[in-house]
Each structure stands twice: as C-alpha cells, then as structure tokens.
Amino acid sequence: MVAARADALKRAVIANLGLLFMVVIWGAMFPALERILRSWDVFSATAGRHTLAVIALLIVLSMRERAIPVQRGMPWVRLLLLGFFGMTVTALLTTLSVQLSSGASAAIASATNPITSAITARLLHRVPLIPGIVVGSVLSTAGGLIAILGDDNAAMELRGGELLLILANVLWTWYSMMAQRWLAGYSQLHISALTALTGLIGLYAVIAAVGVTGMADFHVDLSPEPVLLMMFAGGISIAIGNSLWHFGVSRVGVTIAAMYSNLIPVVAVAISFWAGTRPTAAQLVGAAVIIAGVLYAQMMALRRQSAQAAAVEA
Q1: From 3, 47, 288, 299, which residue has the greatest number of CB atoms within 10 Å?
Q2: What is the pTM (predicted TM-score) of this model?
Q3: Alpha-carbon gap, residue 210 to 220, rounded angstroms
Q4: Which uninterrupted H or E stretch holds 84?
Q5: Per-domain residue ranges for the chain?
Q6: DSSP element (H, E) containing 114
Q7: d(CA 303, CA 161)
Q8: Is the C-alpha dihedral spanning 232, 233, 237, 240 positive or negative?
Q9: Are 258 and 125 a contacting pair, CB within 8 Å?
Q10: What is the DSSP code (8-state) at residue 89?
C-alpha cells in the first residue's frame, strides 16, 4: 500500500510539472497570437501554426518509432471526429476569440475552464463531482478572475469574443476525454500527432470552403517577427503543449488539468514583469488562490484513492 501511494504521488508530481510547463508555453501563445493577427487573417494564422505543429509532431514521432506513424489500420473515423471538433473547430474559435477581444480578455474567459470542464465531464460522461473537485474548481476559477480583474483596465476589455473561447473549452474537454478512451493504447505523443493531423485536414477543408465562397480576405506577413512568432505558436505551443496536456490528462484527469489553464494570466503577468511591469497585489493573490485550488483538488483525490485501496485490502 505504501509503495502504491508513493508511485501515485510520483506520477502526480511528474504530471503536474508537465502541466506547469504546458501553461507557460500556452500562456505565451496568447500575446504571440495577438501580435500575429495584426498582419495575418484568422484562417491563415490558424492554418500556419497548426501546419508547423503537425510537421514538428510527425517528425518527432517518426524518429521515435523509426517508421512512418500513419498506417491503414488506425481508427480513422474516430481520429477524424477528434481532429475536427477537438482541433479544427477549437483552433478557429480560439483565434477568433483573440481577434474579436484581446489576449488579456481571452485570458479572462479561460478562468472559467475548470467549471466548464467539470460540468462538461459530468454531463457527457457522468464523471462524479466529488467535493475536492468542486472546491478546487471554484478556487482556481476565482483565482483566475482575481488575477485578471484585479486590473480595472483589463475588465474594460471584454468585447464578446470571450464566449467563443468558453465554447472552445467545452469542445476541448470532450476531445480530451474521448481521445483517452477511443485511442487507448496509443502514446500521448501519438494521440497529439494523429489528432493534430486529422484536425489540419479538416482545417484545410474549412479554409477551402471559405475561399471558394469569398467569405474571407486572406493575407499573410512573412517578415521575420510574425514568422518567428508563428514558429513558436505552432512548433512549440501546440506541438509540445498539446502533448503535455494529454500526458497530464492521462494521469490526473481532465478536470484537474483544466485548473492549470487559470495560470495563463499569471504567465502573462510574468512576461510583463520580465518586460519591466510590476505585478499587482491582486495578480499575486490570484496566482496563490489558483495554485491552492489545484493542490487541494489533487490532495483530496489522492486521499480518496488511498481510502478506496485500504477498503479493498480490508
């Protein structure tokens, strides 16, 4: 029993470290994407960063397996569904959210992620809302709102695009849970690469349809700054970030992993601090509340698992 508890704690620590690193690169993606959208249209920006991500993921996966990772016997119907709703639609909604609002106000919307993830998991898959999850979700959501809304100027930036990010999170929660169920047996890197690939196919189909109907004005900027930001937003933020997300979800669950999204505003604060802007007291308090919520939920989950194991042994 002691060995099992130690192993569970080790797995939780590794998963949490991975999720923390994921938050850093995902948090930096929002200001990078906001800058890219100054000279790129929504569809080109989304396609560009996802194309780079798929290339990076397939190269790494091919080197790891020493073979072409795409094969005939794979569950392509499920992969196409996961890719379209989990990657294509959520990517477009995220980009549109940043364009219609701002990077800061999109972070405000991300503060609702733990609550929407818990509710979505409950409604779709009957995941129990145990007290630790409920309290942790409330704390992390409150911390995210404190971190952002502590700045009166940030509160004035709400423009309506934030609702798109909330919808994207509901779809992302469904995708995250179903990917672990439908693709059980595949590595987390494999799940990230294959769903990103099918998502990119769906994205190209949407862009082709939009182009034919003339509904969009495509424009790109190949100057050094947006290209470098695009490489970061795709090759690092999506490729590495998504792999770490699936890794964390497979170990701590989608609801607890979603709580980390509320650290995205804290990353923005850290970037601002590095640039010479001091964080406010509200932002520091919000960061502390978020971390407290995440730790509380996981401590309760580990305690519940230990109690269940003890009951089985008895």
Answers
A1: 47
A2: 0.71
A3: 16
A4: none
A5: 2-313
A6: helix 113-125
A7: 39
A8: negative
A9: no
A10: I
Contact residues for 264 (Cβ-Cβ < 8 A; gap 6+): 23, 26, 27, 30, 107, 110, 144
Backbone CA torsion sign across 5, 7, 10, 14: negative
CA-CA-CA-CA dihedral for 88, 91, 96, 102, to nearest 10: 180
- AA identity, residue 193: A
Query: What angle in degrees, to the nearest 10, is found between the helix axes of 188-213 and 76-83?
Result: 60
Encoded amino acid at 220, one letter: V
Which residue has 């990657």 as its token pair? 87
Alpha-carbon span 42 to 100, nearest angstrom: 10
Q: Structure tokens of 192? A: 């990230």
Using alpha carbons only, give the angle 127, 133, 136 rounded to the nearest 5 degrees. Answer: 155
Q: Rounded distance, CA 286 to CA 288, Å?
A: 5
DSSP character at residue 278: P
Q: Where are the beta strands (DSSP E) in 225-309?
A: none
Whose tokens are 């309506």? That residue is 160
pLDDT tens string, the chain, 314 residues long: the values are 556 666 666 777 788 788 888 888 887 787 788 789 889 998 999 999 999 989 988 888 888 777 677 777 789 999 999 999 999 999 898 888 777 765 555 655 666 676 777 777 777 767 666 666 677 777 777 776 676 666 555 444 455 666 787 788 889 888 988 998 898 888 888 888 899 999 999 999 999 998 888 877 888 999 999 899 999 888 888 888 888 888 888 877 776 777 776 677 667 666 656 555 566 677 677 777 777 776 777 677 667 666 665 665 55
